[in-house]
Amino acid sequence: MKLFWKNTDEVSNRLASAPGLLVTLDFDGTLAALAETPGQARLRPEFKTALTALSALHGVSVFILSGRALKSVRKLVGLKNLYYGGNHGIEIKGPGFAWRDTRAAKLRDLIAKTAAEIQERFPPGTGVLVENKMFSASVHYRNLKAAYKRGFFSGMKALAAAQNGSLYWRNGHKVFELLPKGATHKGSALNRLAKKLGNPLGVAVGDDLTDEDMFNTLAKRGITIRVGRKAGSRAGYFLSGQAEVLRLLRFIISARRWDIKWRK
Fold first, then answer.
1. What is 105-180's CATH number?
2. Can 26 be counted among the known catalytic residues?
3. DSSP string, the chain
4. CATH 2.130.10.10 fits 2-100+184-263, yes or no
5. pTM of the entire predicted model
6. Which of 35, 60, 123, 200 has the most CB atoms less than 10 A away?
7. Of 51, 55, 89, 52, whose CA–CA distance to 70 is shortest?
């Protein structure tokens, strides 16, 4: 990975010259700083302003692709004319487009049952937070109390070993995620929307393990940016931290506006 800000010339030229642009952004840890609980996350007004300006540019589409449920991420961002993906892309909705992974949808009862079992095993007093997002579930342990640490990890290991062939577990930032096997992930969701939009130049920005699916998909043909440097990431560039994402959005806006002005 290369530091993004030391390579802006090569990126700016690609952004400016592309006929179309699909900017795909993760939410938690990318557009919004990581919070103690999912319910505490907020999109700062200046980010909302930048997203509005970016999506208004000719030939630019913005796709907010999150592990959250679709309804949750749409409410948190609160902007029209953007594309939204929930549950890592299992459900997508935006201007003239709505899609859901039907195979994953068939497993929502099993996901709900598993989430309920975990919540019963680790009630709120343990510091564990279980989210049933309908088509996936998240088990957050950012606030896990020390007294329950050993029991939590051994319990999660046992649950993963006992899980049937329809679901699987994936790690993230202080979270275990339960997902349908073979379901849409962030990379395939990005591909699906890009095809709908005529395959514009892709820009993907994210900070977590699930965002590597986007980076893999766009490897050698798009612009991939990781929030925070990490060995082994497939992203081509990295930002030092989440605070730099706003600067990045403004940089993309500036590059596209310069091209429009130059062409005139």
1. 3.30.70.1020
2. yes
3. -EEGGGSHHHHHHHHHH-S-EEEEE-TBTTTB---SSGGG----HHHHHHHHHHHTSTTEEEEEE-SS-HHHHHHHH--TT-EEEEGGGTEEEETTEEEE-HHHHTTHHHHHHHHHHHHHHS-GGGT-EEEE-SS-EEEE-TT--GGGHHHHHHHHHHHHHH--TTEEEEEETTEEEEEETT---HHHHHHHHHHHTT-PEEEEEE-SGGGHHHHHHHTTTSEEEEES--TT---SEEESSGGGHHHHHHHHHHHHHHHHHHH-
4. no
5. 0.93
6. 60
7. 89
Annotated catalytic residue, options 26, 207, 208, 259: 26
Q: Which two tokens stand for residue 20?
A: 């179309």
Domain map of the chain by residue range? Answer: 2-100+184-263, 105-180
In angstroms, the CA 108 to CA 118 distance is 15
pLDDT in tens, 61-109: 999 999 999 999 999 999 999 999 999 999 999 999 999 999 899 999 9
Return the axis-axis angle of helices 245-263 and 45-55, rounded to nearest 10°: 30
Helix 8-17 to helix 245-263 angle (10° resolution) is 50
Phi, psi of 87, rounded to the nearest 5 degrees: 55, 45
pLDDT of residue 259: 54
